[in-house]
Amino acid sequence: MTDDEAALVRRIAKGDRAAFEELYRRTSPWLAVRLRRRCSDDQVVAEVVQETYLAVWRAAGGFAGAAVDGSAVGWLWTIAAHRLVDVFRKQARHAEIRHDAPLEAPAAEDEALAGTVGAELGAALDGLAPELRDVLQAMVLDGLTVRETSVLLGVPEGTVKTRARRARILLREALS
């Protein structure tokens, strides 16, 4: 992926449908493969891809990192990862409501994404400040490096490291 994706996002912000189609053509196969690494349900992956590109169309004007290396693709992945987490959380809530339904044992990564490892973890994550949660989301769930997280969030690398450490300490305290 090149910085051409950033130019496409800027054009999408102006309502350019051809740019949107081109961005979709270039990035949707990659996005679907990356989502499938976290979710084996093709229907969920298709839904998340669709919701992601709808969000891109609606929010392209808010894209701030167009001049930063790889940030358009990082921005796209962040939207998709958030949508996938939302789906997992929704599924977890529905599973809690249907007590009589047999539950399959999800993979550890799915549990972490869905926040179903325990109510305590979900509460601890919800109790974190948004900037701490964003760093954990990018580094732990999305698998980004400190540098990539720094670019994505628009903060210095040292700030990313500090926030990650602080978030881990607060989670440890909340769970002990």
TrEMBL record:
Indicate the segments forming the RNA polymerase sigma-70 region domain, all copies.
23-93
Molecular function GO labels: DNA binding; sigma factor activity
- Write the record's keywords in alphabetical order, separated by commas: Sigma factor, Transcription, Transcription regulation
Q: Which domain of life is it from?
A: Bacteria
What Pfam families does UniProt report for this protein, alphabetically? Answer: Sigma70_r2 (PF04542), Sigma70_r4_2 (PF08281)
InterPro entries the record matches: RNA_pol_sigma-70-like, RNA_pol_sigma-70_dom, RNA_pol_sigma70_r2, RNA_pol_sigma70_r4_t2, RNA_pol_sigma_r2, RNA_pol_sigma_r3/r4-like, WH-like_DNA-bd_sf
| Start and end residues of each RNA polymerase sigma factor 70 region 4 type domain | 120-169
- The answer on whether this UniProt entry bears the keyword DNA-binding reads no
Q: Which GO terms describe its biological process?
A: DNA-templated transcription initiation
- Member of which family? Belongs to the sigma-70 factor family. ECF subfamily.
PANTHER family from the UniProt entry: RNA POLYMERASE ECF-TYPE SIGMA FACTO, RNA POLYMERASE SIGMA-70 FACTOR ECF SUBFAMILY
Query: Mind telling me which NCBIfam families this protein's record contains?
Result: sigma70-ECF (TIGR02937)
Q: What is this protein called?
A: RNA polymerase subunit sigma-24
Q: Which organism is it from?
A: Kibdelosporangium phytohabitans
Q: What is the lineage of its organism?
A: Bacteria, Bacillati, Actinomycetota, Actinomycetes, Pseudonocardiales
